[in-house]
TrEMBL record:
Domain of life: Bacteria
InterPro entries cross-referenced by the UniProt entry: Zincin_1 (IPR010428), Zincin_1_sf (IPR038555)
Coiled-coil ranges from the UniProt annotation: none
Upper lineage: Bacteria, Pseudomonadati, Pseudomonadota, Alphaproteobacteria, Caulobacterales
Name of this protein: Acetylglutamate kinase
Xref: Pfam families: Zincin_1
CDD domains listed in its UniProt record: MMP_ACEL2062
């Protein structure tokens, strides 16, 4: 029997996650990527205390991703100098969720969180996104 040994494996770093996120984005359908536009994807270990406080979240492990910006449905041609839209992926909460599950690869989970947050960029609510996921 050939057992996999984990004694020489390290957890994916922030840079590893950034590579996985870029690959996940690049693997999305071209139309979806085009509609996402110039959204910036950023990987951090955890959300900031300010973000957690603003969302009323006490446990940083509860937030795997966040969209920050003006969604496409709310934009105006009069919006000059606006900050770029950003999607944050939080490495430690994603790793924690992945470790608790046995039904999804790390790449699939990163893709799921990324697509969910880009959904907010498109102006979709959490309920909209969950309904689309349930119908898929």
């Amino acid at each position: 029997m050939n057992l996999m040994t984990w004694s020489d494996r390290l957890a994916p770093s922030l840079d590893d996650f950034a590579v996985l996120a870029k690959q996940a984005f690049d693997d999305l359908p071209a139309e979806f990527r085009h509609l996402a536009g110039e959204v910036v994807i950023r990987v951090d270990d955890f959300p900031s205390e300010e973000v957690l406080d603003s969302l009323g979240i006490e446990d940083a492990f509860e937030l795997t991703g966040l969209y920050q910006g003006v969604d496409l449905s709310s934009r105006s041609v009069l919006d000059f100098g606006a900050e770029p839209s950003r999607v944050f992926l939080y490495r430690r909460p994603i790793l924690d969720e992945w470790a608790e599950r046995s039904d999804v690869s790390l790449g699939e989970l990163i893709t799921h969180v990324l697509v969910h947050e880009i959904g907010h960029h498109f102006g979709l609510s959490d309920d909209d996104i969950h309904r689309i996921e349930d119908e898929a």
